[in-house]
Amino acid sequence: MDALQEDNILATFDKLVSEGSIIFGPHETIKQDCAGYPLEFRICPSLTKKPHVVGATLDASFDKSEKWGPGSDMYCTDSRLILAKLNHGTHDLALNLYSVDRPQFMALTTDSYRRQYEPLDTADFAAALEMLRLKDVYVIYNCGEKAGCSRAHKHLQGLRGPPEAWDVFVSQDEEERGKVPFRFFSHRFVDGFGAVDELVGVYEGLLKSAREVLGKGESEACPHNVVLWKDGIVVIPRRAAAVGKASANAAGMMGSNWVPDQQSVDEWTRLGCRHVLSELGVPNAQT
Fold first, then answer.
1. Residue 141 bridge partners (DSSP)
2. Gyration radius of the chain's alpha carbons
3. pTM of the entire structure?
4. Which GO terms describe its molecular function (predicted)?
5. Distance between CA atoms of 161 and 142, rounded to whole angstroms?
6. Residue 52: its pLDDT value, please?
7. In this predicted model, what pLDDT tens digit does every residue of 178-191 receive, in sequence order?
8. Rounded to an integer, what distance in angstroms lies between the CA atom of residue 35 and that of residue 277?
9. Which of these, 28, 79, 111, 120, has the minimum number of CB atoms within 10 Å of its CB?
10. DSSP code for 221
């Protein structure tokens, strides 16, 4: 992991894009202010090829590719996608097949039978902390279909940070935090991320709060998003993956929404961005 160099990663990414093993292309950015909540739409035409729900088929050109293990619904189109092993081999660090950033990362469990509706565990957080050492990367996890996941094989994603609305979430000003249209639970580590066990303990406490908001028991799957950036963690309870045709994963809930076309932006605007976000999550009392 320490041997990974930014230039080498970018060179590999660009090569795989040129060969068609990674789907990535130019995008247009549209920014909106939703009553104090910053929202960015990144229109990425390349995302028209991406499956958006679990079970959806991939582009025909990938169907013959090797899967990421016997229990996986992820495809490894090229062995060069795999950059390193994380946490002594519990996860593969890989380039994302459908990228909105240059580059975009994934950390997939090497146990290909692990599932995306499972909460994060110690091994996942150890891998996440290694991903955070990459330049300007924040980590997201979409736990379950209602949280915006499109593949069942358990994986985290690494994106270029920060998320558009991050400062609102971690603000010490209650009025500022009240601009978020939905309920969320967060924690900032004064000295930065430290021991993995401490991070796991904080996450479990935040997840307990998310379960209570959603009325979920300890044995039930709890759809939620997790975001890690710099010295903070945010957990967002989720009620739905989409409102009409307006959808969002963890990054979208944090104000960084990737869409395939202008029509998707128009749908968000028609429905009302704050309304969509509050329905995807649990409405903030001030919304």
1. 226
2. 18
3. 0.93
4. ATP binding; ATP:ADP adenylyltransferase activity
5. 17
6. 45
7. 999 999 999 999 99
8. 13
9. 79
10. -
